[in-house]
Amino acid sequence: MLRNIKSDYLNWIILIGILLLLLEVLFFNGGLIVTFILSISFIYLGKKWKPRFMGKAFFWIGWIWLIATVLNMMTFRYFLCVVLLYIIVQFFQSQKQPREIKPVILEGNFKAESEPYLKRQKIFENKFFTSQQTPEHVYEWNDVNIQVGIGNIVIDLSDTVLPNGEAIISIRNLVGNVQILVPYEVEVHINHSIMAGTVEIFQEQEQRVINETIVYETAEFESAEQKVKLITASITGKLEVKRV
Questions:
Q1: What is the pTM assigned to this prediction?
Q2: Which helix (H) or strand (E) holds 37?
Q3: Which positions fall inside the Cell wall-active antibiotics response LiaF-like C-terminal domain (predicted)?
């Protein structure tokens, strides 16, 4: 069923579920965390003390307690309603303009300790809600390594000069779309891990994936002078790699 839900819509469903869970824990059911800890502790002790009778009793009490707690949660009822509504009606696609992120490198400075090294300024701040913006101008390249919570990311490689060798882009996010714009002369290796979402690479047709790791490499990647290795991991969202 998840394969038929548009990635943007699925992002909103999960985001609302996360917010509802936070509200439930903070305002409506403060003992929920304690209940989870106790039920998981019972399960753990039960597995540790098997096959004794006390171990079996703890194990099943823990599972029954955990399942009963989940069934009584508002968040569980919300997701159950979403599933039932999906069976009845078709969700419409909602398009959003992603925020464009382009790395900008500030001047590095040397700092001598036991031995000299070059320390570069950070490109991005790790934030749960991405609100980072960069100027619309040519920038100096530096490898990208970011982790964000919720939001869309666009990295345009046409506005920079990639060095000879392998450039690295590593992106880890919970919910959101990732778009990478790659010049035609640059070879690419893609390693994408996703729980539920869509993938569109170059001219390939968009495909829906669930709990998969996708590895893609252009034909001349190994011998190319300029190449990019893209490593992404996400719970839900869309990965799009395009030539520009």
A1: 0.56
A2: helix 32-49
A3: 128-241
